[in-house]
Design goal:
Helix content: 55-70%
Number of strands: 2
Strand content: under 5%
Number of helices: 14
Distance between the termini: 67 Å
Structural class: mainly alpha
Shape: globular
Radius of gyration: 22 Å
Order of helices and strands: HHHHHHHEEHHHHHHH
């Protein structure tokens, strides 16, 4: 790869940072551009080569993954003034059913909580309670501070947006007790031994350790599924998709629809209740 392209990619990375893109997003975009350059192997950036790359990606990747990669490339092409080379994303029909093998049930969630208690992992227990009780992202845990617990609400600032999350009374009570037990008087509530905020890998690693004791398939156990469970539980009571999107911090209601998709068995039970097959 020549120096001109490398410099261009570096400037693209700087621009993403200046536009306050999330660090993970920046890494992803740069990584996808580098993959594309590898694919080109010195050939010029043309619309034809982009179309070839799209076909190449479809061999080993699902449509949504391909679209994520193409979105990153299109952003780079737009930045470098090569709009004429941008390619259309693949059309993906919204899946109305969830994958039951990866869907965490309320009963399984409660068994995970019990397992965390039995292992005396108080931090993990309260982390799971907080994510599932509020619907926040793992990356937003750092906004759950002692001060936020006292005021019973947290101000979440992500991607240039600010939203307020209400902390339920019962959760507040538990978090106040946790803070007292841990000797945390101010600042971030969930932190490592070095005082740094917990990240996704910390939490996911600890959750996986609970699977055998909790009798839960490890494929279902990762922090984001707690957010999904919150969304499903909320929507089952308050069937307001737009309100749920605001609570979750989604820019599009279409994203929220994925969170509240029903499983095949639930769909079959609904069809049976309709009594139209006679």
């Amino acid at each position: 790869m020549n120096k001109t392209i490398l410099e261009e990619i570096r400037q693209f990375e700087d621009t993403l940072r200046e536009n306050e893109k999330a660090p993970q997003t920046i890494q992803k975009y740069v990584r996808e551009v580098l993959f594309f350059m590898e694919f080109l192997n010195g050939e010029p950036i043309t619309k034809a080569n982009l179309l070839n790359y799209r076909e190449y990606l479809q061999i080993d990747h699902k449509a949504r993954t391909v679209n994520g990669k193409l979105s990153a490339l299109n952003a780079y092409l737009e930045y470098t003034g090569r709009d004429d080379c941008k390619v259309k994303l693949l059309k993906v029909q919204q899946n109305v059913f969830i994958d039951e093998e990866r869907d965490l049930s309320e009963a399984e969630y409660k068994r995970l909580l019990t397992a965390a208690k039995n292992k005396k992992n108080s931090r993990l227990y309260h982390v799971m309670l907080t994510i599932c009780g509020t619907g926040i992202r793992v990356s937003e845990l750092r906004f759950i501070t002692v001060e936020a617990v006292k005021s019973r609400k947290a101000e979440i600032q992500m991607k240039g947006k600010i939203r307020t999350i209400i902390l339920p009374k019962e959760l507040v009570r538990k978090l106040e007790r946790y803070a007292k037990e841990q000797g945390i008087r101010s600042g971030i509530l969930f932190r490592t031994r070095n005082g740094k905020p917990l990240d996704r890998s910390n939490i996911c690693h600890d959750m996986k350790k609970l699977c055998e004791t909790a009798r839960v398939n490890s494929q279902k156990v990762f922090p984001h599924n707690l957010r999904h469970l919150f969304a499903k539980s909320y929507y089952a009571i308050e069937r307001n998709l737009a309100r749920l999107a605001d609570i979750l911090g989604h820019s599009s209601v279409e994203t929220t629809r994925i969170y509240v998709a029903t499983c095949v068995r639930e769909h079959e039970r609904t069809i049976q209740k309709m009594r139209l097959i006679i």
